[in-house]
Amino acid sequence: MSKYVRFGIFLLLLAGVSYCLHTLILQNLGLDSYWLQTDFSLTGMYMFFFGASLAVAILLMLADFAFPNYLSFVFLGCILIKAIASYLFIRSGLNLFENDFLELNFLVVFFIFLLYDILAAYKLVNQGVKVVEK
User: Fold this and answer.
1) Tens digits of per-residue pLDDT, 45-98?
2) Where would you find the membrane-spanning parts of this chain (predicted)?
3) Structural domain includes residue 63
4) Number of domains observed in the structure of the chain
């Protein structure tokens, strides 16, 4: 199986499992009713970040093919653009609740997908590094 397909399958699994766990936790805590008071949804957040992380992964793989020495710069640029896009996505919902419900859920989803981006970049940067036994 191609490494590109593995990146996509892992992203899909990560998004699916984390979405299910996130939804179960909110339901068990009785906090899922807060979503009705906002224009945002947990599904919408996961879809946005899934698309953003997929775009970052594709750009990283293209950079790995074309400019393997500059992969870390491409990664930093992608993360900067993703952070700006994330702020633009959530800015209308900031300070909407007294208890920071939306902000905390946003941060959880942001960091889940940020960890995926970091792992994808790590795998691409270190793909050629082999341990030499003495």
Assistant:
1) 999 999 999 999 999 999 988 988 889 999 999 999 999 999 999 998 887 777
2) 44-63, 70-90, 102-125
3) yes
4) 1
Amino acid sitting at position 86: S
User: What DSSP state is assigned to residue 34?
Assistant: G
Contact yes or no for 35/89 (Cβ under 8 A) = no
CB 102 within 8 A of CB 42: no
pLDDT tens per residue across span 7-41: 899 999 999 999 999 999 999 998 888 888 888 99
DSSP string, 68-127: GGGHHHHHHHHHHHHHHHHHHHHGGGTT-STT-HHHHHHHHHHHHHHHHHHHHHHHHHTT
Supply the range of the domain harboring residue 33.
3-125
Q: Is residue 133 part of a domain?
A: no
Which pair of tokens denotes residue 103? 């902000």
* Domain membership flag for residue 130: no
Q: Enter the pTM of the model.
A: 0.88
CB burial of residue 63 (10 Å; 0-12, 13-18, 19+): buried
pLDDT of 83 reads: 96
pLDDT for 32: 86
